[in-house]
Amino acid sequence: MSLHAARVVFEERSVPVAVPAGRAPRAVRAAVMSDEDVPETVLNHLDFYRGTAGKCKRYARRVDVTVILLSSSIPVVAIFAIPQYVLGILGAVVAAIGTLGREFKWKENWIRENAVVMAIQQELVWFRHGVTPYDSGEDGGRRRSTLAVRVEEIVQDDAARWAGRLGERINKPG
User: Fold this and answer.
1) pTM as predicted
2) Which ranges constitute the DSSP H helices of 80-139?
3) What is the mean pLDDT of each run of 10 residues along the chain (174 residues)?
4) Which of its termini does the chain have fewer beta carbons within 10 Å around, N or C?
5) Contact 28, 5 (CB under 8 A)
């Protein structure tokens, strides 16, 4: 396993760390990305959305794979002299798992949350390179506060979209 060196600010001290290549913890990766002081709220939002997007991705894939495997096993089970109720149970389990996947919208949430991660990462790249609205002519405090405000707007827009979709589901007749 190859390691690369990084420096992380910890309790107002710069601390050297050795991190497995490609496996750096999220906060370390974000800190290594830029020498500038990225606001903690930005890193927290990025970590939150990365975590939930990954979790939704795993759940969505598990549901899809389980439905495919169980539904494809029904014809195989039907070939053998197995009681009919086993086929019925397999069909019911496939229907239930598929319904859970649609109800919890793990695939849609994965896509939505991944889009938020990408938007935050774009802001961080612009921040690092001093691209508008983070022009290098501004002082560091203003640049950091602009980053924090813009990332908070991204998060609030996502929360409003999510709440709107939730309200549609609640108010939907039937």
Assistant:
1) 0.72
2) 84-104, 106-129
3) 45 47 50 66 96 97 97 93 92 96 94 96 91 78 92 96 81 66
4) C
5) no
